[in-house]
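Q: I have two molecules that I believe assemble together. Could you output structure tokens for the complex as a whole instead of separate predictions?
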Amino acid sequence: MRSTLAVVRTVALGRLREQPLRLVVTVLAVALGVALATAVYAINSGALSEFGLAARKLVGEADVVVRGARTGFDEDLFVRLLGDASVEEASPALEIELAPLGDHPPLAVLAVDPFRAAAVQRELVAGLGGELMALFRPASIALSAAAATELGVARGDEIQVRSGSGVQRLEVVQVLPAAAYPQRLGLMDIATAQWAFDRVGRINRIDLRLAGGVDVARFRTALEARLPPGVTTSGPAAERDRAANVTRAYRVNLNMLAMVALLTGAFLVFSTQALSVLRRRSSLALLRALGATRRQVEAALLAEGILLGAAGSAVGVLVGQAVAWLALARLGGDLGGGYLHAVAVVPRPEPTALLGFFLLGLVVTAAGAWVPAREAARAAPARALKAGDAEHAARRLRPAWPGLSLAALGAACALLPPVGGLPVFGYASVALLLFAGMLLVPATAAWLLGHVPGTRRAVVSVALAQLKGSAGQSAVSLAAIIVSFSLMVAMAIMVYSFRESFERWLGEVLPADLHMRVAQAADTAFWSAADQADIAALDGVRRVEFARQLSVYLEAGREPVQVIARRVSGESDFDGLPLVRGDLAAAPPGTARAWISEPVHDLYGLDVGHRFTLPLAGKAEMLTVAGIWRDYGRPGGAIVVDRDWYVATTGDGTASQGAIWLQPGARASDVEHAVRAEFPRGDALQVYTGGALKEMSLGYFDRAFAVTYLLEAVAVLIGLVGVSFAFGSQALARRAEFGMLRHVGMLRRQVVGMLAGEGVVLGLVGVLYGLVLGFLLSLVLVYVVNRQSFNWSIDLAVPWLQLGALSVVLVASAGVTAALSGRAATGTNALRAVREDW
Amino acid sequence: MKRLLHAMLLGAAAAVALAVGAAAQVDYPAVLPGVQVRLPADHGSHPGFRTEWWYVTGWLDADDGSTLGFQVTFFRTRPDIPQGNPSAFAPRQLVIAHVALSDPSHGGLRHDQRIARASHGLAGAEPADTDVWIGDWRLHREGDRYLARLDASGFGLDLVLERTQPPMLNGEGGFSRKGRLPSSASYYYSVPQLRVSGTVRRDGSSLRVRGTAWLDHEWSTALLEREAGGWDWIGINLDDGSALMAFRMRDREGGKLWAAATLRRPGADPVHFAPEDVDFLAGRRWTSPHTGIEYPVAFQVRAGAVTVDLEPLMDDQESDSRLTTGAVYWEGAVQALQSGTPVGKGYLELTGYGAPLALPGSGP
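A: Yes, here they are, computed for all two components at once.
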């Protein structure tokens, strides 16, 4: 052989001519993985860059942002800060959420003094155009372009929002140009907002621009020390990352799932290449005998893999970008996850990222092709030319110690804590266990097959004998099934566990007949004490409990926690507080008690019996943790406190939500109508029966996990493709053997039956192995990855029925594809087939 | 007369309700003939009226031998907003300040401005006596002295202005008509021949300065007639101790819509001139390289038998506030000459040369 190129041409092109369909499918498998990874990345980065842009406009030129809980602090703080010599400009603001009537999400509003905000949020204020003072008009609001579009209003129109349980009309005096702010936002004058939403004297944000030469970090430290309880500072970088942080765990999870898909695709390449190399041993050996060097053969096989990878990656990158567009158009920037409210993001293709995913696909595929290439090139030509040597080569893959040590390492990783709030080691553990699982396939398969009992039926015993004799090769085909099946099993168990826990939790936290709130935006939409009395007096109401939810900063640099002030009576029928630890019994006199959700426990290190301070209404209140409860509704954490204590402490008797227990015989719909009739635009109140709310929540859940379901389906698909490949190539490789069997008197039907039996046995072994491995992986997902990502616990639940059905489908399809490839392989003339071997 | 300018820009504020045809939220007092300006009581602000300003212009000689012009203005405007908002942030009054330094060595005008709502003591205008401020920018009266301190970006003024003459009421008892309609008028007095001393900071270095200045204090509710397209105004401290104020309202074609002047000889009572006795004859023209607007920067002004020629300290004294308030105008130090001989120094203001001005209170 003169040149490597010639060898490449002979090896790779020869194969392409031989098996075009198989190559196409292999390319598609790689493409699938790359496409998923690309799509998830494109969607996330699109949403995030939009968020980053919006956050940048809101931070503007501020050096320090002072924030308090949404209920705010005395505006006097703004005057004091402006008097500080280090402060050049201070812009007071009230950030509130409005509840537009009708089917609209809450509208975030920044209420500012436009003159002062012009020094900080320059671009935003410039968006008002020349008419800074248009905002001074009575009950006026300016809307970002996105907000105006969502609300379907234009300049000069009116919008209606909740204020308490009443209705406030606001005139849209300006619509900002789209470039001024990319998301939904309202701008109001601070005085108007204070008046219209009952916040006179209170603000909850101050943007500071510091004088030149002031050390920002030192200033912040000094400032923090003299701020009232519950008021913290943050810098521009933290403000910009705020949105990103909220969705980080969710995004990392999606990215990980995409990577898993890519790895699965790559593994498929490995198994096809491995089988194809084994099958072509004799022709490769012939090349060596004709003078090709070991290095040339290796390079040729590697080039073949790279070609496959390049084709697959190119297709994958393009498809991924297209999927991103589609997904965003249909599901939104959070893929239905509910984290990013209705952001219309159009991801622009990022050339570097796309190139990155292309190279990633290429490298992973090349790695998959390299292992078998190396092995094939090493073989001594003379020996490899002989039939039956393939199994000898495959035997090398059998030692168990590398797999066992990887498994041990993976198990150890599962015990490590999260890194920066992310389950880095959890993911490492999944990867290591998966890899270990793959490496242990040959040894396990050999062992399992060795224990299959013998039989008198000739066809079956021949099939078994064949499998035992070629355990190594069988293992390689098995591995492809096992990888995708075990991942599928793990994900199915995790999602099922979460869904079961979520459903049970919903049942526990919704104990009443009717649950209601004025609107989602509890800031501005609430019931006054008089409203609450009116509701309690309605016919058919046996018992009503009201609650106040408000957000509070517990620690600087963290997202706020939700404080829920409600009655905790100790009566389990009414409390709806799913405790995992502690108790509900009444507090001993003189101590205020708190029931914290699991995220508060994980994030702030609080536990039953601990004492902590909760900033409420400008004072630091000392509380004792009485219990820990499970909460899937507030990822940032929630703290339940006694409502009587809350009202006595803060004087805030308003309620953002309520629950009604009906009198015997009363109809839920009658009471619901009565509640709605009490208030203006009562049709816009949110009043649901426990059952309806549960159903809605499960609907949200399923939408949020739509992507996971999609990835599961992909895993199954890849698995099935892997199965058919494995049998297809084996059947072709064994044409000589079939010919021989036909010679010794086996009918074609019997040969095909034998192959089907082989398929079923292999499928069974693969499914069993995959179930076990998948179960182990699901333990890591449920107890490590989930807990560390979301800080809440879920109970392990196995979807036996689904897994059983899937197993049957997989085993059956293994048998069918094996039989089909057998039919194809035995179609040729038996004599010619035998000849091929000589 | 003056600086309606900013007030009108801000007029946006006041005009908001009018612009949308909504009912006015605020009942502004009217400027009535026969109501006299009474000093010292009227030195303070008149928060009921729609607009008000304190306006100081003057010439300075620096200790390095250079000549500078300066202008310090504080506006107060009462926006037409709904009453009864208990929020301390409610923009019941807005304060706007503008400071400019005409510096021939710099080749142009240095200027800076601030705007704030009068709240939380951070900006305001005292009714009791002249005392207006936004943050650390402040103009206030202490007996016979005014103190002006404005630390702007790139430059700053810290000046003491001492009264050498009593205030001069413009129009009958301070009732100054601005047009053919009696309702278009203001209360207006000037304090000419102020003796200035203090420091000017520019580009980080400080200069000791001395000079002469002119202060206007004017308040009103409706100044301009709807036909008005702009105005020309002068306030000149003559070297013999006389003071000359004159203005001309122009119609949209540039013709004289209304005019008035006050001339006070030292120790004498002021003489008021009727529209037919006041002429502004435009001389040399200068086209702004910044905005392309053409201004007559030299004038011959006649008030009765007195005629003065005006020559600017430098041509480029244009203020471009389009980014913040929307107006472009020329406001600069001028020298007064008679037969080619310098006889005094003052300020000239030219508005409405770019586009006709729309003023609050003058109707749509």
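A: One point stands out. Chain A is about 55% helix and 15% strand.
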